[in-house]
Known about the structure:
The complex is a heterodimer of chains A (313) and B (429). Chain A is of the alpha/beta class and 313 residues long. Chain A is built from 10 helices and 9 strands. Chain A has helices spanning 19-33, 61-72, 93-101, 117-124, 140-154, 172-183, 212-216, 240-247, 277-280, 287-306; strands spanning 50-55, 76-81, 107-112, 128-134, 161-165, 187-191, 207-209, 221-224, 262-264. In chain A, the strands form 2 sheets. A 5-stranded parallel sheet of chain A has the order 7-6-5-8-9. A 4-stranded parallel sheet of chain A has the order 2-1-3-4, with helices on both faces. In chain A, strand 8 (221-224), helix 8 (240-247) and strand 9 form a beta-alpha-beta unit. In chain A, helix 2 crosses helix 10 and helix 5 packs across helix 10. Chain B has 429 residues and is an alpha/beta fold. Chain B has helices at 77-86, 105-118, 141-147, 162-174, 198-203, 210-227, 239-250, 261-265, 287-299, 315-318, 332-344, 350-357, 359-364; strands spanning 3-13, 18-27, 30-36, 46-49, 54-57, 59-64, 89-94, 122-127, 151-152, 179-181, 194-195, 207-208, 231-233, 255-259, 305-306, 380-390, 409-419, 422-425. In chain B, strands 1, 2, 3, 4, 5, 16, 17 and 18 form an 8-stranded mixed sheet that branches. In chain B, strands 6-7-8-9 form a 4-stranded parallel sheet. In chain B, strand 13, helix 7 and strand 14 form a beta-alpha-beta unit. In chain B, helix 2 (105-118) runs parallel beside helix 3 (141-147).
Amino acid sequence: xxxxxxxxxxILGIEDLERSDIELILQxxxxxxxxxxxxxKKVPTLRGKTVINLxxxxxxxxxxSFEIAGKRLSADVINxxxxxxxxxxxxxxxxxAKNIEAMNPDIxxxxxxxxxxxxxxxxxxxxxxxxxxxxxxxxxSQALLDLMTVLKHRGSVEGLNVAIVGDIxxxxxxxxxxxxxxxxxxxxxxxxPASMMPRDIAKLGVKVHHRLNEGLKEADIVMMxxxxxxxxxxxxxxxxxxxARHYGINHENINALKKDVLIMHPGPVNRGVEIDPEIxxxxxxxxxxxxxxxxxxxxxxxxxxxxxxxxxx
Amino acid sequence: MTKILIKGGRVIDxxxxxxxxxxxxxxxxxxxxxxxxxxxxxxxxxxxxxxGQVVTPGFIDLHTHLRDPGFEYKETIQTGTASAVAGGxxxxxxxxxxxxxxxxxxxxxxxxxxxxxxxxxxxxxxxxITKGLxxxxxxxxxxxxxxxxxxxxxxxLTVQNAQLMRLAMDYAKSFxxxxxxxxxxxxxxxxxxxxxxxxxxxxxxxxxPNAAEDIIIARDIMLAELTGAHLHVGHLSxxxxxxxxxxxxxxxxxxxxxxxxxxxxxxxxxxxxxxxNFKMCxxxxxxxxxxxxxxxxxxxxxxxxxxxxxxxxxxxxxxVEFDQAAFGIIGFETALPLSxxxxxxxxxxxxxxxxxxxxxxxxxxxxxGGHLGAGAPADVTVFDPKEEWVLERDQVVSKSKNSPFLxxxxxxxxxxxxxxxxxxxxxxx
Lengths: 313, 429
C-alpha cells in the first residue's frame, strides 16, 4: 500500500474507488505529464521495483502504455504474453500467478478475457494487481485516461452529459466509464440497440437510448465504443454496414451535435464503422490525446501502488 | 436378532401422521414398531437416546452426482455415500453423467454393485435419456430399468430436440419411469455463467435469463400432456417455473418438481466477488425467484421434494477463472440446516419439511422407504434441530470441498443415520 494516500492494494475497478481516489490519481497523473514531455523521459521513482505485464489477451496499446509508463519511472518491466491462456500448457491461472509471485514482483498488470481474473490474482497474491481489462467487467485505467482527457478540455465533468455509444453488453470500457463519470458528477447515457444493452443497465443510473440522434442531442462528450467482432459469439446486429448506418458518427449526423462536442474512442477505431474516417481525425476528435494521457495515468497508478515515498521528479 | 431402540425423541413420520414423543424399534433391517414413549421394553435392545432430538425416516435425495465411474478425483461411491449419511440421507439417486455415461446395463450394474460393496447408503442410479448424453438417439431405457435405474435424465445436457424428448417420454412411460429434467434452452444459455440480472451486468459475466429455464419447463409440460409420461422437473429455480408446475398440476398432469437448498437460500448477489463456489446451473437467481420458491413451500403441493444436486468438483475445476469454472456445489451435508431455515422463517412446519425430504421424494420416484411404518426398511435419521455448528473445510466428509457455506454457522445437525438397521453415521451410544 502506498504511503501516498491511495487506500487500496489493487486497482480492480472504478466501482471500488472513491471520488477522492480518482482525484488523487488524476492529480498525480498531471504531475507526471511534464516528465513525458522532457527530452530525457525518465525519473528514478520506481527504481528497483518490478512490474509484470501479464497479458492473456492480445493488446498493443494498453500493454505498450503500461510498459512505457513503468520504464519512464525506472521500474523493471517484464511482459508476459500468455495469449490464449496458460491453460494451453496445462497450467492454471493460479499456478502461473503463484510462480510469478515466488519471484517477488511488486505490481502485476493483468489483462484477461475472463471477468474477475484480476480478482482471483488479487486474492492470492501479495503483489499489487492492476486490472488492465477483464472480460466485459472493467478497464479502470481506460476510464481514468478518458476522464483526464475530458478534464483537460473542459476543466470539469460536473453536470456534463456524456453519451457512450455501442455494444454496452460486451464493454468493460463502458462499465468503468459509467462508474467514473458518475462519481465525478457527470450525467451518463448509453446509446445502442437493445440487443447491445446488458440486463437492467438503467439501474446503474444511466439513461438508455436506442436511437443515435436522441442519444446524442444533449451530449457534451460522445464516447464511441469499438465493435469487437472477435469477442461476440452471435452478432447482436445484422451487419457492419447496418451498424455504421444507424449507430456510426458520420458527416450528416455530426451537424446535429453540439458545436463543442468532444468525440472519443478507446481504440483501435474501426474506421468507417463507429466513426467516419475523416471525423476520427477531425477537430472534434480527441482520440490521440487519450493515448497520450494513458501513459501519465498509468504512471500515476504504478506510482501510487508501489509504495514509493516521493515523486522524485 | 439385532434390536435398536431409539428412545426419547420427537418422532416425525408424516406418512403415518406421527409427530410427538414416540420410541422407534428396529429389528434387523426393518422398522418393527413406533410406539408412545416408554411403551417398548428395552431389555435386549441397543439403546439410542434421542432426547431433545428429532427422529425421522431417512432422507431421500432424488438428484445427486457421485462421479463414479470416471471422475473419482471429485468423489467416489464410497466417499459420496459417506457424505450423504453425514447429511442424514439414507437413499440417493445418482445422475448419469459419469465416464462412461450411465447409458447401459453394465454401467448401472457397476454402480449398483459398488454401492452394495462399499456404499454407506442406498444408491439408485438414474439412467441416461440419450446415448452418451448426446441428445441424438435414445439410450436402452428398458435395459437400464432392468439393471436398476429408477428414472432417466440427461441432466445438464438438456435434450434440445423436442421430437426426441417426446419419444423419450413415450418410451419411458411404457416402462413406468419418470423423466427427470434439467431445464435449459441451450442457445439462450450458451455463453452464460450466472443469472442474467443487474449483478451479471455489474460483474460483466454473460448471464442466463430465467426464460432459458422457463421455455424448457413449458415445453416439457406440454410434452407430458401429449404423452401422459411422468415429468419430474429437476432443481427448479425460477418464479415462472413455479407457476408452470402449479398450473400443470392443477390440470392433473403427472408433473412433479424438486428444489435445491441453495436455490431457496442464496441469490445472485452472492456472486459479487467472483467466488466460483457460488457458480451453479441453474444459476442462483434473483431475490424475487427465491421468494416465489419460499412462497410455494408455504402454499404446499407445488414442490414435491428438496433435492441437493450434490455436485462435487475438485480445485482444478473450481479454482480457475470464473467463466472456466465448473458448475455445481456439494450439498448433502448442508441440506438439513438450510431446510430448517424454511421452518425457522415460517415457510414450512417441521413435519412438512421432513415430508419433503422423505415420504414425498420416495413417492415421486416410487422408492421404498420414506416412512416408519412397521415392516419398512430400517432407514432412520436423528438430528438436533437447534445445534449450531460451523462448516469447516477439513470437516467436510465429501471428497470435494466446493461449498459456498464453508466457514458459515449453520443450525441443525445430523446426529445419527441408520441405513438398513446399521448405524452408518454417528457413534453407537
